Amino acid sequence: MNLIEKIKYFSQIIFGIVIASCIFFIILFLINGELWFIDKIYPWFIPISAYALVACFLIFLPLVFIKKTRAISVIGFLIASYVFGIVAWMWSFSLVYIFWGFIGLFIGLLFIGVGVVPMAMFISVFLGEWGFLWKLVLIVIMSFSVRLFALYVAAKIDHKNF
Length: 162
Known about the structure:
This protein has 162 residues and is mainly alpha-helical. The protein has one domain (45-161). It is 88% helix and 0% strand. It contains four helices and no strands. It has helices at 3-64, 70-110, 116-127, 130-156. The termini are far apart. The mean pLDDT is 82.
């Protein structure tokens, strides 16, 4: 290797370090902004999820038995399932940050953003916080079961009704 090739090689290494550092700081900035956002919006989602659960049982479930209103109930169940999923994700995000900080969040977010929920469950088991674990499991089960029920009802709807 001559001197010019060594300089090019060294500059590529420095450029790679700078790019990696920039990406790292952008991720930290986004996580910090997301923490602020969750801190402001999560208190609103607790009563919304409670209302969604009540609506699932008192409004959408009876609408399933009326043939002409099944599509409305499917939409309501799907919206409720997404509300439950958002609550589970935001709560998991907060738990991971509280117990393991940015490093835990970074590891959890490496799993396509959904990894914070399993990461929060792992942390709950690791720290012996069984109440947090069972609440997370319950919210995730609610989210998926309501969504699966909505898809089941949607599959049973006669397509002529649309």
